[in-house]
Amino acid sequence: MLTKRIIPCLDIKNGRTVKGVNFVDLRDAGDPVELAKIYAENGADELVFLDISATEERRKTLIDLVLRVAEQVNIPFTVGGGISSVEDVDLLLKSGADKVSINSSAVKNPQLINDLSAKFGSQCVVVAIDAKQINGQWKVHLVGGKVPTELDLFDWAKEVEQRGAGEILFTSMDNDGTKDGFANEALARLSTELNIPIIASGGAGKINHFTDTFKDGKADAALAASVFHFKEIEINDLKKELRDNGIAVRIPS
Question: Less packed terminus of the chain by CB within 10 Å, N or C?
Fold first, then answer.
């Protein structure tokens, strides 16, 4: 049985880790290098580092920060934000990232997914999808959730898989930062209709929310930020609870 993964997310703005609610009202959550080291030592399975304003500000991801974080961790490390070319990804992987996450650039240039998968392998390519419900339909949003599109979440997810993505990181903008739980109905549909791993994001507030997203949402991994950054949930405690609920997780010896 494949183990379920717990993934802290470090949203970066101006070199600091931040966290908001519904993609706005950001507050400082600490130094990303220090947080990354702590998470790696305390049982996180992977890390995701998102330079959340890179696309909006039309600049590249902070390579020096990637280098510093990579020096401190011994677990897989995904980097996203402002990535728009094969050359960007080549530099990030050489700087220490294990995977890259693309979002707005994939929608604007879907061929980029094919190109990255062909060049680096699908295992390196995570496509992040931010979506919210509008009139009962899940619609994809871009540029940190600021730009709505007419793209349907499930149609886009299927295209992403066909083009060679290795994983999908789905964030429910409706659930983000609310601590009311993940969007399990949408996650379950994604997991049923696709054959690649789905990472759940948006809404973690309690340990049982993780249990629910693995059981009801059929997610392969669960990503969270503030509950880890502000020590509301300790990763070791979370994993022990998951194991007690019959969910396979990696618990460091």
Answer: C
CATH number at residue 19: 3.20.20.70
Examine residue 250 and state whether it is found in any structural domain, yes or no.
no
pLDDT at 1: 63
pTM of the complete model:
0.91
> Does residue 251 lie in a domain region?
no
- Separation between Cα atoms, residue 155 and residue 175, nearest integer Å: 21
Of the listed 51, 88, 130, 176, which one is catalytic? 130
Concerning whether 244 is annotated as a catalytic residue, the answer is no
Q: What's the domain range around 80?
A: 5-244
Compute the average pLDDT of residues 142-166.
Answer: 94
62-68's contacts with Cβ under 8 Å and 24+ in sequence apart are: 62/12, 62/15, 63/91, 63/92, 63/95, 65/12, 65/15, 65/32, 65/33, 66/92, 66/95, 66/96, 66/97, 67/95, 67/96, 68/33
- Let me know if residue 9 belongs to a domain: yes
User: Is 11 an annotated catalytic residue?
Assistant: yes
Residue 252 lies in a domain: no
Q: Is the pLDDT of residue 75 over 90?
A: yes
